[in-house]
Amino acid sequence: MHQNRTEDGTQVPESGVTIITTGGTIDKIYFDALSHYEVGTPVVAGILAEAGVAVPYTVRSLMQKDSLELTAADRAQVRKAVEEAPTPHVLITHGTDTMVETARALAGLVEKTIVLTGALKPARFRDTDAQFNVAAAFVAVQILPGGVWIVMNGCVFEPQHVRKNRDANRFEWA
Fold it and tell me: Would you give the DSSP letter of residue 67?
């Protein structure tokens, strides 16, 4: 059950950040040459702890799926979790292949600031973008106005104006 506390048990004030994890590449663990993997435990708390983040946050692991496996029911579950989040700032870690679809499924939730982010390479890789994207998203969720946003590759996108460019391996304006 989700509690409004950090990992050390400290109460998170309403001004903190709720982090919802859904899985995706950011949490992947590979067992061989990039073909056999599983979505592991969320890495976001470790990334933020290593960075010495001083803003209170709580992490809720909602699911551990590759984003290509997410269904409409899963997206409804994400939406419900956002609606029930105790803070006005919600960061969602998500797989990059269907991040845009999930962001669009959250349309209309303007009373909260919701930022989706992920990684194009697993956080456990040495040359990953995970730490940068999580850091950028963590700051963005605190300063952007209410609504749904995607933060990837150093950019802030509106869900209706972004696409993943698989050939270039980055997000870009559409």
Answer: G
